[in-house]
Amino acid sequence: MLVAEFVQSYFDAWNHSDARGVAEHLAKNGTYCDVPLQKQHSRDDLVRNLAEFFALDRNRYHLIGEVLASEQSIAFQYRVCADDPGQDDRFGAEFMLLEDDGVSRITDYYDAAPALPSICNDDADRAARKYAKSGLDAAQMDSYTRKLTDLMEGEKVYLESDLSLLGLSRRVGCSVNHLSQAVNAGFGLGFFDFLNSYRVAEAKAILSENSPQLPAILDVSFAVGFNSNSAFYNAFKKVTGQTPAQFRRASAAATPRA
Fold first, then answer.
1. Mean pLDDT, to the nearest integer, of 112-132?
2. In whole angstroms, what is the distance from residue 41 CA to residue 149 CA?
3. Which residues contact 143 (CB under 8 A, 6 or more apart)?
4. What pTM, to 2 d.p., does this model score?
């Protein structure tokens, strides 16, 4: 992927009020996370929502500073200039997680901000380096989200039942407040939902196993890091829409018999 061209194309779609063009920057099964509104959209949902948004608002979107890119992510800051002179400009940041087939998740964090006289003004530059009240600049945010991904996917720290926000912040090497902001802005989730998403994924893998010796569901809940069966059931159903037992039965029914 040519990052500069990709980001330019993304901004062009926003500036031409092209809802489908914006959505097509996501992979087929990708999601767009609107952090302030706490909403997640599939590509089709995003097209519908943006079409309604563009019908009401006409803004200009400008890249601020450099685009930060790694093998796993793209991050950048932006400024929204409203056509209505009575409205203040806004600032925000987006984080794109990359997979083999393209962008799997776009996380959009934005907030209202006072209009600034010039994007080259020192005050504007200082404001642009902040993610609208987040206190983190793009480099820090990218570093923390990558470290979080390494800890979760590489070291599987979510299996530790006593893992806390404080304990995880120490491993990442940041403050509790910054870690909370990194989880919210980088992944579009609260801390416990973020943690439980990994635990539930691990549980699904265990419950899908085709083995004559199936572990009890209570044992599965403890094995993946939950402290109680009720917490496990609630988190599992929130993520999958099924209870663990329902998921296991459906998985068994879908598995071809030898």
1. 38
2. 22
3. none
4. 0.52
